[in-house]
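#onboarding

Welcome to the new folks! Below is a worked example of what a typical request in this channel looks like: someone posts a single protein sequence, and someone else replies with the predicted structure as tokens. Don't worry about understanding the tokens yet, we'll cover that in week two.

Example request:
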Amino acid sequence: MTTDRESTSNITEIAPSTLQQWLDQDLVTLVDVREPSEYAGEHISGAKRISLSTFDPSEVPQEQGKNLVLYCRSQSRSQQAAKQLLAAGWTEIYELKGGINAWKAANYPLKVNKNAPISMMRQVQIVAGSLVFTGTLLGAFVSPWFLILSGFVGAGLVFAGVSNTCAMAMLLAKLPYNQRV
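Example response:
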């Protein structure tokens, strides 16, 4: 049975419906820990962006009488940010269960910017695919040594899937067009 709140240590997961109620009642400080380009594309109205890649617990606002809720795309980065906050002395942190994906699935409103950069996942797919394709072509027509490029990218993608961290996405996030909000 799924409950509206599930707690792990001092981090409590809340359902999108709970977050919407808290927003309606002005009981929440909402922090989006995604990268600037993701936030620029779409975010929950009223959310403050503090990217996990540059996360500093001292930047998180502590508002009296409000619950701190963290969210990201699926919940992986918000969990990491919550752990940093616990280590910094925070005692009560909430996470949006399922992240912005769950929020969208529940049909709650988002602020959407159609002029924002394409999603980080698509950027990684484009760059990785281009590198594999280029390495394969150069390996077939110039020198078999170029196939190392395709193998390197493939190994990087496997590592990203296993470790749930993507070095290519972290590098792409630092590009200027991904920094604008």
